[in-house]
Amino acid sequence: MSAEREKEYKPFHEFVKRFRKNRLAVGAMFVILILFVVATLFYVFEVTGVNFPYGPNKTNVSEKLQGPSWAHPLGTDNLGRDVLTRMLHGTRISLLVGFVAVGVSITIGIVIGSAAGYFGSWVDSVLMRFVDVVMCFPRFFLILTVVALLKPNFWNVMVVIGLTSWTGTARFVRAEFLSLKGRDFVVAAKALGAGHARVMFRHILPNALAPVLVSATLGVAGAILTEAGLSFLGFGVMPPRPTWGNILSNGRNYIFDAWWLTVFPGIAILVTVLAFNLFGEGLRDALDPRLKIE
């Protein structure tokens, strides 16, 4: 027979093909990979005691507030600490805050959204009214209030950001469950005797993760920005642990004398948040089955 064989559909290959066509998203992905490499490398340096190019907390008052130079490419702060070194070490803190906070928020959002969408009826009404109540509070001011009541530290910041940013994920997951729970494969699983937990997390949830993945990627950018804002206001990760936010906060006192203390951390935050946003947008477009591939 001369009939051509039907080309096998490979979802992953189609996803890669769609994603590669978005050059901004591909470029953002490489920026994120570089940030991960830097964060991992300088974590190893910190654990092994290697100070490269300088120690993140090494002070030298005789070199304080020096502008960018060969010795200090991004200048020094008011204590003579190398800004480049502190920013490189701060990369790990910013990424860790972003991913842990998003991990907490995604977990809570999936549990609440799954239960609301799957069971419906009064369960859906109660959970969604709770989501509406949480969304009524201004998120950043709620975070400020909670952090002010607790001791500002690294772990509190991550958990508080995660506990206040799950509502969007819950609504995404609920919508996906409402559209999927009546499909044939779900009905078949129930007919075969599968329990509620198995149907929810083994059959429905894997098919509802595409928008959650996009939401998580965009959420990392939001968490990084929130941490930077908290640190800038003095409620985030406390010195001497370096973060982009507290470096920026320290620089506001010398904004007219040492511009590099605000410009370079600001650029780092801008580039990182923009990279995660562009990467998330690229994932959303690539995972959308309604888009045609030319």
Describe the protein's architecture and organization.
With 294 residues, the protein is mainly α. It has a single domain, classed as MetI-like fold. Helix content is 69%, strand content 0%. It has 12 helices and no strands. Helix 3 runs antiparallel to helix 4, helix 3 packs across helix 10 and helix 8 runs antiparallel to helix 9. The longest helix is centred in the middle third of the chain and has 37 residues. The protein is elongated and about 75 Å long. The two termini are 29 Å apart. The N terminus is likely disordered.
Helix-strand blueprint:
Blueprint: H1 11-20, H2 23-48, H3 83-119, H4 121-136, H5 139-149, H6 154-163, H7 167-180, H8 184-191, H9 196-204, H10 209-233, H11 244-251, H12 260-287
Number of helices: 12
Portion in beta strands: under 5%
Mean pLDDT: 85
Largest sheet: none
Q: Structural class given helices, strands, pairing?
A: mainly alpha
The rounded distance between the terminal residues' Cα atoms is 29 Å
CATH superfamily: MetI-like
Write down the CATH class: Mainly Alpha
Shape annotation: elongated
Count of the domains = 1
Q: What's the architecture, going by CATH?
A: Orthogonal Bundle
**CA radius of gyration:** 23 Å
Question: Fraction of residues in helices?
Answer: 55-70%
Q: List how many beta strands DSSP finds.
A: 0
Poorly predicted runs are: 1-6
The ordered string of helix (H) and strand (E) elements is HHHHHHHHHHHH
Using the coordinates shown, work out and report the CATH topology. MetI-like fold
